[in-house]
Structure of Protein-glutamate methylesterase/protein-glutamine glutaminase:
Amino acid sequence: MFGGHKIYSETISVLVVDDSLTSRALITLALKRNPKIKVVGTAGTPLEAKDLILKLKPDVLTLDVEMPGMNGLQFLEKIMRLRPMPVVMVSSLLAARSEMVEMACRLGAVECFSKSSGEQGEAVFVGLADVVVRAASQRVNAHLGVSTGFSGSSDFIVAIGASTGGVEALGEVLGSFPEDCPPTVIVQHMPQQFSKNFARRLNSISRPEVCLATDGCKLARGKVFIAPGGEMHTEVSRTGRMSPYSCHLVSGPPLNGHRPSVDALFFSVAQAAGRHAVGVILTGMETDGARGLLAMRQSGARTIGQDRNTSIIYGMPKAAFECGAVEVQLPLSEIGPSVLRLAENRTQESH
């Protein structure tokens, strides 16, 4: 029973979700050894899992963290919004990444299981059946999850720069943002004629409102502004107490060969927001954004760079990392949750 405790006198039905066929088979074997558990289905992608959840109505879901298309944490958030149920996160990453466990619990997971290191075959999942049985009777709060709100301050802003590969990368980052996310400004290298459709597409798949920046528009929680391609740079300035920041479209020559330029945005955020900002540099060619991100870091902002393995082009993130602008490099799936965590932590430090 959702929202309360369910005492099982009958078999616990479980759906196993993992992108690895081998892992799905091994998890199924491990769970079947417990007579209280019946594995009713397996899925290799979130899309398959969604259909099976609706069809099979399992009592418990085991969910891998790393999956194609949408990572496990993003899918977990959707489950808790659409059909809250006991979920056990299963991954070898959990033992080494306490922030991932923290995020999973915030999103609504009732248990986290780390695969046994040094073991092989079914032994990797020894103990998982007991965790699943325990999870089946735990309380599930349908209101858990990042989507219920960002607890940081409106004085805190997020600036993101991207180029080649950024269209897909930005979709994944914004996919983890709640409806009232920190005020966010994005520069994606793109011709002017594509900007409006790009913003419209992001808006259709994101919980916050996504739109093109206009001159003088006020930054606010729950709003993401995309710099329009073309003849202007997009910069941020500090305005007043009620609406601390605004966007400005500024004329000027291309910077690093680009207009709008990531550097132009980052330099302005460094001056306007200082330590009350997070800067993110994503996949892209060449070096735009590296110097501006360094200025942000030197002003006290937190800075994140996409790692080599998940970047379509490891050019901009590499340049930023090599000049000392990047505080931490992360795989794409971890960037959105980390931005929110850094913003909330910095807000708490200020109080």
